[in-house]
Every structure is written in C-alpha cells, then in structure tokens.
Amino acid sequence: DMGEEYGFGFHYVERADGTYYIMDASPFEIFPVLKNNMTVGQTWSYDTESGSIKYKVVDMGVDLDLGFAKFDDCLLLLEDNQAVGFQSITYYAPGKGSVYVIDPGGAFQYYKMTEMITIDAAEAANTIIKWCPNYYDIKDDRSQSY
C-alpha cells in the first residue's frame, strides 16, 4: 500500500477562458490556475469558505535550467493562498506545465521537476487509475464552477 486510495493525483481541465486545476481528493472543486492571453501584472482570484487564493503573472519569457533539461519561455505565476497563509511562485514551461515551484524570495524549493520520461497511453491510464481514485468523477461538463 502506497496510499493510492487517498487521491494524491490532480487533473487539469482546459476551458474557454483558461486552464483549471482539480485535486482528485476534492473532485467537485475546480481552481482557475492559468488564464488565456496572459500578460505580466494580470491578476485573478478564487474565493473559498476559508479565504481567497489570488494569482498574479509576475514574469514571462523566462529561461530555466533544471540541470537535466532547459525550459525556455516560462511563465512565472505568484499564488497567494490567503486561506492557508501560503505563497509560491510557479514556473510554467510551454507544453510541460509546472516544472518548478519556489517561495517568493527564492530561498526554498517546494517542487522541482527532476526527470521526464515517455510512457504509452495504457501506462498513463493505469497511473491515473492507481493514484486518482476519484477520476471517474472528474468531468468537464461545465457544471463545475469556480
């Protein structure tokens, strides 16, 4: 047992106005993560019962070298999760998604991609089934809202 039944996975859903994030542990809650046609300084927010999550594009066109790979033209997004008192800056690489997450001062790494591998569709499906027990409930029927 590796804890698979707890829904540690997550899903991204593309909608007309941007990309949304759904945690498998709470499949009916959807967060607006990236908006379309972003510009530096652009902001948006998501309100929860516990508080707001505010997003801000802080930079674009940033090149990032993670040692095993270089990612060009990254977007840097500040997330200010006021619900839990947490801030982070995420580097989004074109065609790859989130590759690096740090605190706003850059002193602490929360997440760093360390490798990329290619898997076939069947292996990808099995990985989703294993780590995302609620994947059947993830539907982009547009009835989910933020």
Q: Which short descriptors sum up this protein?
A:
146 residues, mainly beta, three-stranded antiparallel sheet
Describe this structure in words.
With 146 residues, the protein is mostly beta strands. The chain has one domain. The protein is 8% helix and 45% strand. A 6-stranded antiparallel sheet has the order 4-5-6-7-8-9, with no helix packed on it. It has a 3-stranded antiparallel sheet with strand order 1-2-3, with no helix packed on it. Strand 5 and strand 6 (70-81) form a beta hairpin. The longest helix is centred in the C-terminal third of the chain and has 11 residues, at 121-131. The chain is globular, with a radius of gyration of 16 Å. The mean pLDDT is 85.
Concise structural overview:
This protein has one domain. 8% of the residues lie in helices and 45% in strands.
- Report the count of strand segments: 9
Biggest β-sheet strands, sense, barrel? 6 strands, antiparallel
How many separate helices?
A: 1
Distance between the termini: 33 Å
Q: Over all CA atoms, what is the radius of gyration? A: 16 Å
Query: Which outline best applies?
Result: globular
Taking strands numbered 1, 2, ... along the chain, how are they ordered across the largest sheet? 4-5-6-7-8-9
The H-and-E topology, N to C, reads as: EEEEEEEEEH
User: Which percent range fits the helix content?
Assistant: under 10%
Topology readout:
Elements: E1 10-15, E2 18-23, E3 31-35, E4 43-47, E5 52-65, E6 70-81, E7 86-93, E8 97-102, E9 109-112, H1 121-131
Antiparallel strand pairs: 1-2, 2-3, 4-5, 5-6, 6-7, 7-8, 8-9
